[in-house]
Amino acid sequence: MKKTLVVGTGYVGLVTGACFSEMGIPVVCIDVDKKKIENLKQGILPIYEPGLDVIVEKNTKAGRLDFSTSLEDNLKDAQVIFSAVGTPPDEDGSADLQYVLEVARTIGRTMDDYKLIVTKSTVPVGTARLVRKTIQEELDKRGLSISFDVASNPEFLKEGDAVNDFMRPDRVVVGVESSKAEEIMTRLYRPFLLNNFRVIFMDITSAEMTKYAANAMLATRISFMNDIANLCEKVGADVNKVRKGIGTDTRIGTKFLYAGCGYGGSCFPKDVKALLKIGEQYGCSMRVIQAVEEVNDDQKFVLFNKLKSFYKGDLKGKTIAVWGLAFKPETDDMREAPSLVIINELLAAGCNIKAYDPVAMQEAKRKLGDKITYSKDIYETVQGADALLVITEWKEFRAPIWNAIKSSMKMPVLFDGRNIYDPNELQKEGIAYFGIGI
To answer: Which residue spans within 45-171 are E strands per DSSP?
Structure first.
């Protein structure tokens, strides 16, 4: 069996490669970062994702999963190459395709037989055409006529549950332009979908758009509920009750209807910006998506503004406890995290900050350095605090010993950025409570 190559060992690439190898497919994950590859060979992962370390270790030992810094050296023995390199936002908000196109150039300069090049990264509509053009240009320079296919296979992984999502997908979207490419992709994914085959084949352009549309819809639901939450506070309604009231409508459903202090992460902010840029390039005003981004940007300031209002604008010298730094639970990812916006506002206001997160402390230190104090647990964090801000809804935050919290704080007041606590319970405990839309 020929190897499957996965170029890029970031979040998407590493999960993809590891999960394919778990199904018995020989995989080589490739990255130009030598240190990262050396660490992976020793079982040291660059990301935190529940269950991923076990799969990587198991399949590396079994010889099904290998790591390399050279795409050229591995290309001859491969038929399928997944491109999962980064597509960071450019200065204008569009996706930067330099790494995607460099992979294409390398393939075009090196390939000597049929290859299927599959874009796994989230890329703008039309990227597959650019990849095909780039590979063909390199083949033309070599004076070779070699057939190849390009496909789009966008990922729909949830950070914190990515392994389960990949192993038991609710759907796999694949954009192809030939029957041969469709046959290869069907064969690759069949082991994951034996009981209920759910590969949705379509043209490549539609597949590219599907990824952006999916993330934009989820982001829209979040921003919609945050808009409703802010109105609920004005009129005296409870957004949690409103959420339940509309979520029972089967046309709406309950997922992604939770009000909070804004979304972050590697996907939603970047993809919303990229979709806006695509609309601009094609002369199509994405008015709903523009509002989604604006609402989310504003929402990241809500907790800070509530705290500032509570202390009548005077926060200088206050000690603020922060629970949760990652943009969501079960990940150490702090990209576009609301915590960063809130902490920077607190620092600018002259606050002293003590923070704790179950897994994102190292990432926080990398981003914030010694600007804040890092605590060993939730109880150390609140000692001497003038307020507690809960930013990430980690499970271990759900049922603290409130007496210990109250007695440790200078001022027992809690600002709940994820609405995980019962206001009545906190009131009985003698802790002032402020949520979102409550």
So the answer is: 65-68, 78-83, 115-119, 148-152
Q: Domain 3-202: which topology? A: Rossmann fold (3.40.50)
Rg from Cα positions in the chain = 24
User: Which CATH number applies to 212-238+258-298?
Assistant: 1.10.1040.10
Q: Which of 29, 261, 267, 351 is catalytic?
A: 267
Alpha-carbon distance of 27 to 345, in angstroms, equals 45
* 3-202 shares its CATH topology with 300-434: yes
Q: What is the pLDDT along the chain (438 residues), one digit of tens a residue?
A: 789 999 999 989 999 999 999 999 999 999 999 999 999 999 999 989 999 999 999 999 999 999 999 999 999 999 999 999 988 776 666 778 999 999 999 999 999 999 999 999 888 889 999 999 999 999 999 999 999 999 999 999 888 899 999 998 888 999 999 999 999 999 999 988 776 768 999 999 999 999 999 999 999 999 999 999 999 999 999 999 999 999 999 999 999 999 999 999 988 998 999 899 999 999 999 999 999 999 999 999 999 999 999 999 999 999 999 999 999 999 999 999 999 999 999 999 999 999 999 999 999 999 999 999 999 999 999 999 999 999 999 999 999 999 999 999 999 999 999 999 999 999 999 999 999 999
| Contact yes or no for 31/103 (Cβ under 8 A) | no
**Domain boundaries defined on the chain:** 3-202, 212-238+258-298, 300-434
Q: Tell me, yes or no, if 29 is annotated catalytic.
A: no
Q: Is the CB of residue 267 less than 8 Å from the CB of residue 253?
A: no
Domain 300-434 has CATH 3.40.50.720: yes
pTM of this structure: 0.89
